[in-house]
Known about the structure:
This protein is mainly beta. It has one helix and ten strands, in the order αββββββββββ.
Amino acid sequence: MKKGKGRVIALGTILACSIGLGTLSVEAGNENTNYSFTILKDQANSYTGTEYRQTTTERNTWKVRMYRSDEGTNTYTTYWLEKSNGTNVSPAVDVKAGNKDLKSGRNYYIKGNAGANAANVRLTAENNTASSSSFSVKGYWDEETGRILPGQYKESYTTEYNK
């Protein structure tokens, strides 16, 4: 009797572990992918290559930080996510430039729209003001961070420097 009970417990444990492993999901990491491009004159768009955003929730934020802008420290550039066909799939956010140090600037966490879920997206930017000048920017971005947008924020939030 004890032997049969032990087999049932062992079989139950194996079954439970198998079911548990089958329901695990891949979680997004909060990574820093480098970007560097020229912000074009007259608010023309500039963008990175695409990254796959696997999330199925809009509140799983994407992130951008601009540590350098040749327009100057503390200037702003507008960023958003879009698909490679030019469809915008997130709110736009004005990002403040850091002081050119790799660790300067703030992280901006922004929700995606439904169109950004399970899709290839790219970081897109334009000058936040109409200007006939172009300038270079550098920073980090991540198409999905695994950070869920807190309920008190409608579209985005920023963190302290280097967090």
